[in-house]
Structure prediction request, 514 residues.
Amino acid sequence: MLSDRFGNALHAGFRRHSRWFSMLILFFMFAAGLAIRLYDLTDPPLDFHPTRQLHSAIIARGFYYRFLPSAPEWQRQKAMEQLASHRWIEPPIFEGLVALTYRLIGSEQLWVARLYAILFWLVGGVALYRLAGEMTSRKGAVIALAYYLFLPFGIIGSRSFQPDPLMVMFLVWSLWLLYRWYRNPTWRSALSAGFSMGMTLLVKAVGLFPLLVVVGFLSLVGKGLRNALRDAQVWTILGLGLTPMVIYHIYGVYISGALASQFEGRFFPQMWLEPAFYVRWVDSATHVAGFGAILAGLLGVWLYAQREQRALVAGLWVGYLLYGLAFPYHITTHSYYHLWLIPLVALSSASLADLAMARLFSVYPRNISRLLLLGLLSFGILVEVRGVRVDLARQDYRQEPTYWQEVASQMGREASVIALTHDYGDRLAYYGWITPQVWLPTGHLEGYRELRGGAPINVRELFAEMTQGKDFFLITLLNQFDAQPELKRLLYENYAIYAEGDGYIIFDLHKPLK
Prediction:
């Protein structure tokens, strides 16, 4: 009896120490994940897909100035004009939240958006840890979370002002809630999973690909096709998940018309027949997630012990495959389209990590194994964090607002401008308050134009059409200007230079040389 009590007490002590050890590691990981993301917080959001981030920044500013009667009238007018010119596909939930925060703090501060994006990613990490822990163990979950929090692309991407960090957060929570619903199919768990799925798809509809496949796979594994089709909870989850997205898109396409043109030029099935497409896809995915990690994730699918676990992670991979086939152009040109690949790889490779940790703890004593785990995690995290910090420190964009304000001041905020410029004119629009008509960089969208069946460009005709009624032609992409000799000749041979400075040339379209 005494020996049994002693054994139980010893076992309870080990469990208590193990729990505290896990809590210590988690605290360290979340603190380090937050710290590296807060570094260089106030630097302008030009380090990661600046066009996409400035798009959201312009929308948020428009919302903010709409209800800011104290602002100068010209600013309110410009902000509203720019808001109207920047149409969106997804509902501007993130942008609206940022605009509301601007109101609360009394000024427009772009770092607010970065702070929210960081928070979304970390909250998603909580769900990932819980899901991976329930599917494997705390050790496997820790490794999965480390990958999710400290992958360099994920660190930078999770600071970006765009819907994707918020979508990833809801996506991971939806997966965890769907798994819990499978394990305990109550109405409460079904409603929670359906609501979370609905929020994911409302934030960004592309979440449909992984979530719909996962729901289907889990239902087939747990109930079979016939019973799944008769199950009210399955239909409730699908109804709650799909209804907000469907209502929003019906309104946007058929009522307001705002989304009618936004779906053009996104689906190019002819690319499926090109071997180069798949090579570019793999290259892009590897750039984001790492080739070794992707292979570990694919292997990890088959190492899960239970059918529902394999169904969930396999459903994610099938969803990712369908997603890439649905957006073949964007999956190879827009790296942030792969952002949700990070939690996918983290979760699917958790089984492999769990096996490795089990082997480690079986070979060495518990305390030595813990020290080895903590040491390896700390070393890996510090290496990745240092690399990202160096990159963030090297890229300083704090002079950009002043530069674009100077360029804009040369022309005046009421000027009508055509521009071969950065980020399709969004830097000039956001920092200089001038919304230019954009002259596209050569080669930048030629492949895109060909995919859409566009005719070859006649530069002289296009120039005459686009410069009609314009005051200035602004050039800030000087390399692109050199790459377009016909445009260069048209401007230099026919128009006077109005102003010229560091990195920009302004041609006066009202002063022809002939």
